[in-house]
Design brief:
The complex is a heterodimer of chains A (744) and B (77).
Chain A (H helix, E strand, L loop, with lengths): L14 H10 L3 H11 L5 H10 L2 H4 L17 E3 L6 E5 L2 E9 L1 H6 L1 H18 L3 E11 L5 H21 L3 E8 L8 E11 L14 E6 L9 H4 L20 H16 L5 E4 L4 H13 L2 E5 L12 H6 L5 E6 L4 H10 L3 E9 L3 E6 L2 E7 H6 L12 H8 L9 H10 L7 H4 L10 E3 L7 E4 L6 E7 L2 H6 L1 H17 L4 E10 L6 H21 L3 E7 L3 E2 L2 E2 L3 E10 L16 E6 L10 H5 L13 H16 L5 E4 L6 H8 L5 E5 L7 H6 L5 E6 L4 H10 L3 E9 L3 E7 L2 E6 H8 L5
Parallel strand pairs in A: 4-5, 9-12, 17-18, 24-27
Antiparallel strand pairs in A: 1-2, 2-3, 3-6, 4-6, 7-10, 7-11, 8-10, 9-11, 12-13, 14-15, 15-16, 16-21, 17-21, 19-20, 22-25, 22-26, 23-25, 24-26, 27-28
Chain B lengths: L1 E8 L6 H12 L11 E7 L5 H12 L5 E8 L2
Antiparallel strand pairs in B: 1-2, 1-3
Classes of the chains: A alpha+beta (744), B alpha+beta (77).
């Protein structure tokens, strides 16, 4: 409107605009900022584009400043944060990975929300030119005794399995936790890993004035308009109005998209690719052009649409699934056409690369948007909101947890059958985890899953972790436990942790306590990654995970990829033969029951300080594990985390015909501490007797406590000696019954 | 009473199944077909007049109100 000198305070924001701002989750101050950038008021389409790109999902408004602290350099790093996904390399193999959340859509429509979450992260990996070879998911649900929670659980698991199974990408690992706090706000974080050759990697950087913008995949409909802004807003119990944002997944189109994209990349036909995920066409086109320092011009009349009365606003903001945007040189269009036609994908040339550094959008001969890209992508306002810790959390942390175990048999069986500890086979058995035949160690057998890289003798180990209960009591220390645990899991199969991806799941940063959690958690993440020498390759932020003012636990999910230099030198966590010794290796076992799982089991208050990671010990333990695995000295390794040492011991025998005899009298602590403490930096190793002296020596060299606590026996039972009541014999049958009990 | 409940995806919700069928039709040369949506039909019999009950069932069980809508028809006989 007015392009005269603007007095920002005097801009009168009309009711119509105010309403629009509300839908977009933009503040009036932000609107004024847009006006000052443009020197005029934006039109509706332009404002919609700002809303999408300035959302937390695309613009990282509240996290951008904080994540600068994260280390991004490391010996395997090929591509750090800033692309569609991070890349680590070994020889000429590029391993591409990223984790992303789909929490809000899964809360509203669990099946489609989870399915489209898988589709979205798969396309991020695909956009790098890599073939997706593995999926991992980290799920948080509420109290599973509530029917509405069960509905969400079933829907999410089915959504992941249907989509993953249809596109032929195995779901190889994951984790599931149940806490009442997630009842209205489930977390669905999906990680995808892909591989390609380093020289085949594609970046989302548009280049070459005159190059064509090619749209391909599904047609554009109204679904998901405002999805990106919706994902950055609190849910309210009144879900009616948000229902228009449900996107429907079409995995068969995704499969075609995968094959078509890889064929385009293989033949060198694309300059850049980005998937149309959150904020669809707007984010993909503007981000690619901004990164390349070029401009982009779009003609919306050419976009394949599903409904004829769709508006330019809706086309720009639609989040219809299974769509990609590629930059193609005109001379290669003919070949691109052949491939896209062969795969029966809808496609069209919808624009071109310009030198204007602006995004110009045309519809029916008119310019409907014209915005300099720097305002949309680079000059996103960033905030670090005032932070103050909730004193109730501090109080909770200062209460010493009270652990009294009277009946060991009862407590052990209850612990094993609790939904957070018990086998997750009821989940992963719905997933195809072996398709593509790369999976060497699948779910449930080891701390991390192992995949081979075909055509090489190398492999990768992958794992995803994040204990939200620890992070609630202490975001800083809790996140460090998660990083230590995920890298430990990877090291314990024989892999070297190469990179970390993370998903920040929090409540609204407008709340000072959440802002505090966010700052502390990212600090902890940075510290842990630096200490362990594992860089962060990228991530995703999901804020506003709260309903009617009730916030989830701050939950940082960390995914780790480790490199295995020789795929024949790995172990899992399963005990192998009678006579093998079982040793507890690592840090000394301490009284670590702060926020521990066992407190819930015995009905004690869940409180206290989460354990503190001693990084020098953690590092040495992981080095020890990799060393003894690569030298073939041990038969199994499993880390100790939630539930304590008893859990990996049971997991070592549960699916075998073997048993174990454990003697707790060798431990310098009470049996209850020995069995259930969650002290980090420890592991259960089994090995042939003949290696005992060698292993002892190596452990001493690494400065680790090494204590033989028992042996593998040829009997279907677990014997625990050294308890106050003497010894306890648990039959495998009762152990299995407990460990394989389903939560519903 | 006899009732017929028809469940469809809401108008703006993408219908992958309908889309696939449409594509097949076009591949076979039926190019005059421009749109096709897939839905479900339920025939339900009850004791007495229970339209309210049918509405409850349709909302809670037969449809997913987040993405679907339904219509109820009373059938004679």
């Amino acid at each position: 409107m007015a392009d005269s000198v603007l007095n920002l305070e005097e801009i009168i924001i009309s009711d119509r605009v105010k309403k629009h701002l509300e839908v977009l989750n933009l503040s009036e101050d932000e609107y004024r900022l847009i006006v000052s950038y443009l020197g005029r008021e934006p039109n509706e389409v332009e404002l919609g584009m700002f809303g999408a790109l300035w959302s937390e999902h695309c613009g990282y408004k509240h996290t951008r400043k904080l994540i600068k602290e994260l280390p991004t350099e490391g010996k395997y790093i090929y591509q750090g944060p800033g692309e569609n996904a991070g890349v680590v390399r070994v020889d000429d193999v590029a391993i591409v990975f990223k984790v992303e959340s789909h929490n809000h859509p899964s809360a509203v429509e669990p099946y489609q929300g989870a399915a489209t979450g898988v589709g979205g992260i798969v396309r991020d990996i695909l956009a790098m030119g890599a073939r997706p070879i593995a999926l991992l998911d980290s799920l948080r649900f509420g109290d599973v005794s509530k029917p509405e929670v069960r509905h969400i659980v079933s829907g999410v698991v089915k959504g992941i399995s249907d989509y993953g199974n249809c596109i032929g990408v195995p779901t190889v690992a994951g984790e599931v936790y149940f806490e009442d706090i997630y009842s209205n706000n489930p977390l669905v974080n999906v990680m995808c890993v892909g591989v390609t050759k380093v020289d085949k990697l594609v970046k989302a950087v548009a280049k070459g004035v005159g190059n064509l913008v090619v749209y391909y995949g599904s047609k554009t409909g109204r679904d998901g308009v405002h999805g990106a802004t919706f994902a950055s807003a609190e849910l309210s119990s009144e879900k009616e109005d948000t229902r228009s944002s449900i996107q429907i997944a079409d995995p068969f189109v995704e499969k075609k998209l995968i094959e078509a994209t890889l064929e385009l990349v293989e033949n060198g036909l694309v300059v850049a690719i980005q998937d149309m995920g959150a904020a669809g066409l707007t984010s993909s086109s503007c981000e690619m052009a901004a990164k390349g320092g070029v401009g982009i011009e779009l003609e919306l009349d050419k976009v394949p649409v599903r409904v004829s009365d769709i508006t330019p606003y809706e086309i720009m903001l639609s989040e219809s699934q299974e769509r990609m945007l590629a930059i193609v040189e005109p001379s290669k269009l003919e070949k691109v056409r052949e491939i896209l036609d062969k795969w029966e994908l809808d496609w069209a040339v919808i624009g071109k690369v310009t030198d204007t550094r602006r995004c110009v959008v045309k519809y029916r001969g008119e310019v409907v948007a014209d915005v300099p890209l720097k305002y949309l992508v680079d000059m996103v306002p960033t905030y670090v909101k005032p932070a103050k810790e909730d004193q109730n959390v501090k109080k909770l942390r200062d209460i010493k947890p009270n652990l009294i175990v009277e009946d060991y048999r009862d407590v052990i069986l209850k612990l094993l059958s609790s939904p957070n500890i018990s086998s997750k086979s009821w989940v992963y058995e719905q997933y195809d985890w072996s398709v593509q035949t790369n999976t060497v160690v699948g779910p449930g057998r080891a701390g991390a899953s192992v995949l081979r890289i075909k055509g090489t003798n190398k492999g990768i180990a992958v794992k995803i972790d994040g204990n939200g209960r620890y992070m609630y009591a202490s975001p800083y220390n809790g996140v460090m436990v998660a990083v230590a645990e995920v890298t430990r899991n990877v090291s314990f199969v024989g892999a070297e942790p190469a990179g970390i991806t993370n998903c920040l799941n929090f409540g609204s940063p407008d709340d000072p306590n959440v802002s505090y959690q966010l700052q502390q958690a990212i600090k902890g993440l940075a510290k842990a990654c630096k200490e362990l020498g594992v860089p962060v390759t990228g991530g995703n932020a999901s804020l506003y995970n709260e309903t009617d003012g009730v916030q989830i636990y701050p939950t940082v999910i960390v995914g780790c990829v480790g490199i295995i230099h020789d795929i024949n030198k790995i172990v899992d966590g399963v005990f192998k033969k009678p006579g093998d010794l079982i040793a507890l290796v690592g840090n000394e076992t301490k009284e670590d029951f702060g926020m521990a799982e066992i407190l819930k089991i015995i009905g004690s208050d869940v409180c206290g300080k989460p354990p503190i990671v001693e990084f020098d010990v953690e590092k040495r333990l992981q080095e020890f594990a990799r060393f003894v695995i690569s030298h073939g000295l041990i038969s199994s390794a499993m880390d100790i985390s939630e539930g304590g040492m008893i859990v990996p011991i049971v997991e070592g025998i549960i699916d075998t015909k073997l048993g174990a005899r454990i003697d707790l009298s060798v431990m310098p602590v009470y049996p209850s501490i020995a069995l259930f403490s969650e002290t980090p930096s420890r592991g259960i190793f089994s090995f042939d007797k003949e290696f005992l002296d060698t292993l002892k020596m190596i452990a001493e060299h690494y400065g680790l406590k090494f204590r033989v606590i028992g042996e593998v026996i040829d009997k279907d039972e677990l014997v625990i000696e050294g308890l106050p009541e003497g010894s306890l014999v648990l039959s495998k049958e009762e152990l299995r019954k407990a460990f394989y009990s389903k939560p519903f | 009473m006899k009732y017929k409940v028809t469940v469809f995806l809401k108008e703006n919700v993408f219908d992958p199944q309908g889309n696939s069928i449409l594509r097949v039709l076009h591949n076979l040369g039926y190019n005059d077909v421009t749109n096709l949506r897939v839905g479900k039909v339920f025939f339900i019999e009850t004791n007495g007049n229970s339209k309210e009950l049918i509405d409850k069932i349709a909302y809670e069980i037969l449809s997913n109100p987040v993405i679907e809508k339904y219509t109820i028809e009373e059938l004679n006989g």
